């Protein structure tokens, strides 16, 4: 398998709910007017607490300076696992559990913090830019490492840098889940928007983003089964960015039980999405 290191230098920020109005112009430009900005990576996640934005440095310039925006100190790089040398955008979602043991667990074992962003088509693993040499050293034995430069993939040179942590021996006890878990009653549908339909549904999508309206199903790519997903929130208090192993604590037992899951990190909490069925596996695996 290949591990692609994307060329974007990313910022992770939180926009307070009461501050979203002053950011609306910039967010609309980033989401709907790609030709008017040099931004190449943009993600917006709304939770009850806030909005989390992941955006490259060019896109970050579109946002106003405001006391309502908090920015994580580090610059982040996005990693993307591609199976069989193919294009990840043409594949079905692999889910974080499919990379739990090959990527997430080794990085946790070497005390490297990650920030996860699962999408319908692929999973992005965000790591601090300063940790990249250690990331490459940790994963070089399992993956062909490639960097994306000006849209082209080139070989990434392993610098052989470590942080002094020794990979644990096999046979160790499972990683304990140390943060409280909670699950709301509502269900989620994981979908993908056809980019060609964006101009025709922009008004509806803005309604969803900023006014919590509905969205028509006929403009979305969805899984054939029409399955629903249950969300699990990780953390009772804001998690911060320095603790290592949180994603591994959740994804490893799910991978062992062969339960697909999406995983979305936000500025304050982490969130896992698992299929509504089978409930027995869901309950017993995460001990909710």
UniProtKB/TrEMBL annotation:
The keyword Chaperone does not apply. It is found in: Cytoplasm, Cytosol. Residues 179-217 form the Cytosolic arginine sensor for mTORC1 subunit 1/2 ACT-like domain. The keyword Heme does not apply. GO terms for cellular component: cytosol. One of its GO terms (biological process) is negative regulation of TORC1 signaling. InterPro entries: ACT-like_dom_sf (IPR045865), CASTOR1_ACT-like (IPR049479), CASTOR1_N (IPR040778), CASTOR_ACT_dom (IPR027795), CASTOR_fam (IPR026249), CASTOR_mTORC1 (IPR051719). Residues 9-69 form the CASTOR1 N-terminal domain. It comes from the Eukaryota. Keywords: Cytoplasm. Residues 73-140, 226-276 form the CASTOR ACT domain. Belongs to the GATS family. This is Cytosolic arginine sensor for mTORC1 subunit 2. It comes from Seriola lalandi dorsalis.
């Amino acid at each position: 398998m290949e591990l692609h290191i994307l060329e974007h230098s990313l910022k992770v920020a939180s926009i307070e709910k009461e501050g979203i109005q002053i950011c609306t112009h910039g967010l609309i430009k980033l989401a709907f007017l790609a030709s008017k900005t040099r931004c190449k990576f943009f993600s917006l996640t709304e939770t009850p607490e806030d909005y989390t934005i992941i955006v490259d440095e060019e896109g970050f310039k579109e946002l106003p300076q405001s006391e309502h925006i908090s920015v994580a100190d580090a610059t982040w790089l996005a990693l993307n696992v591609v199976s069989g040398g193919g294009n990840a955008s043409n594949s079905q979602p692999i889910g974080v559990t499919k990379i739990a043991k090959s990527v997430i667990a080794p990085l946790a074992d070497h005390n490297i913090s990650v920030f996860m962003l699962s999408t319908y088509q692929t999973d992005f693993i965000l790591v601090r830019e300063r940790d990249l040499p250690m990331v490459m050293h940790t994963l070089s034995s399992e993956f062909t490492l490639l960097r994306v430069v000006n849209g082209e993939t080139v070989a990434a040179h392993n610098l052989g840098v470590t942080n002094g942590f020794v990979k644990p021996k096999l046979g160790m006890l499972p990683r304990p889940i140390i943060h409280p878990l909670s699950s709301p009653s509502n269900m989620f549908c994981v979908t993908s928007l056809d980019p060609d339909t964006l101009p025709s549904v922009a008004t509806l999508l803005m309604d969803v983003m900023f006014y919590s309206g509905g969205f028509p199903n006929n403009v979305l790519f969805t899984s054939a089964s029409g399955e629903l997903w249950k969300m699990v929130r990780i953390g009772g208090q804001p998690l911060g960015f320095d603790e290592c192993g949180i994603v591994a604590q959740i994804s490893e037992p799910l991978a062992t039980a062969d339960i697909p899951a999406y995983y979305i990190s936000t500025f304050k909490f982490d969130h896992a999405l698992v299929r509504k069925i089978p409930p027995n596996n869901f309950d017993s695996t995460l001990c909710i």
